Amino acid sequence: MRSELKGTGVALVTPFREDLSPDIPALRKLVRHVIEGGVDYLVALGTTAESATLAPGEKAAVLRVIAEENDGRLPLVAGIGGNNTLSVAAEMESANLDGYDAILSVSPYYSRPTQEGIYQHFKYLAHRAPLPIVMYNVPARTGSNMLPETVARLARDCQGIVGIKEACGDIAQIHTLIDAVPRDFLVISGDDLTAVPTVLAGGVGVISVLGQALPVEFSTMIRQGLAGESGPATDLSESLRPLIGLIFREGNPAGVKMLLSQLGICRPEVRLPLMAASAELSRDLDTFMTAFLREKV
After folding, report:
1. Which of 103, 154, 163, 236 has a CA positioned 20 to 30 A from the CA of residue 21?
2. Known catalytic residue at 123
3. Of 100, 109, 119, 136, which is the active-site residue?
4. Do residues 20 and 53 make contact, with C-beta atoms less than 8 angstroms apart?
5. Which residue is catalytic, options 119, 165, 257, 296?
6. pTM (two decimals)
7. Is 48 a known ligand-binding residue?
8. Is 165 a catalytic site residue?
9. What is the dihedral sign for C-alpha 68, 6, 185, 1?
10. How far apart (Å, rounded) are the C-alpha atoms in residues 75 and 162?
């Protein structure tokens, strides 16, 4: 399984209809779009999927539809996380994960646990999860930072924990992390801006937001980085930097949903408390994409 979660993974949005109910046909269309674009694996029910606002039945439907549409073509990762350790473990044990290969689980948010609390949380989950776990460190959302020594300790002590999606945004911490963990432990960028630097430092790839809108370009960039082609990978990363800034300017996934809407894949709606992208952001995205596509011709 470890060898399968390399390259470009995409954290899929949950498309909504105008009435904010899940848009299942659009979700199927999105899955086909990213598979045909050359990504390496799919992530369901991450932060980008607005999983915090999905009811349990909606989560189950999203997992099922993605697995059906994927039809065994790519590895699948299911997002199951939270700050109630017992509840997260119960959800992992009860979820229908047929067709899935791993679980992505975020470090406990809001509670701001100590490093020992984070360690014990993931150790508990590792002993109960039905699939291998990829941890997710995203301090900007959780309010706490999983330090490299904590990650390395979990990597050594828990066979069921196989990697980490690292979105600390600090390339120095990422270098320290890669040096601290076992060689077969997966260090995956969780930040589109640090994807190429992470890969060039020894990481195995990215779980991307932008990659679902531009799967061909993002997959090409990461493959170049993994092949040691630092120049082309860095150049492509820099060309996408303004777009990455745009899709996160008004929060995630409002920006990428507007971009997907402009590409004809799904509507731009998000659920409260998030707000759909503004008319100004829509214009800026359209302006960038017009110039970007013109340069490709």
Report:
1. 103
2. no
3. 136
4. no
5. 165
6. 0.96
7. yes
8. yes
9. positive
10. 15
The Cα–Cα gap between 31 and 42 comes to 8
Two tokens, residue 18: 């105008």
Cα separation of 50 and 161, whole Å? 24
* Model pLDDT, residue 3: 64
What tens digit of pLDDT does each residue of 13-36 get? 999 999 999 999 999 999 999 999
Structure-block tokens of residue 137: 């460190």
- The CA distance from 292 to 283, in Å, is 14
Token pair belonging to 254: 């409002």
Where do the domains of the chain lie, and which CATH numbers do they carry?
Answer: 2-227 (3.20.20.70)
57 residue type, one letter: G
Q: What's the rounded Cα separation, in Å, for the pair 217 and 220?
A: 5
Question: Using one digit for the tens of pLDDT, what is the confidence trace for 66-125?
Answer: 999 999 999 999 999 999 999 999 999 999 999 999 999 999 999 999 999 999 999 999
Judge whether 142 and 110 are in contact, CB under 8 Å.
yes
The CA distance from 13 to 210, in Å, is: 11
Residue 106 · residue 83 · CB < 8 Å: no
| Residue 10 token pair | 């995409």
Scanning the structure block, which residue is given the tokens 């020594």? 149
How far is residue 24 from each of residues 49, 62, 143, 182, measured CA to CA in Å? 13, 8, 33, 40
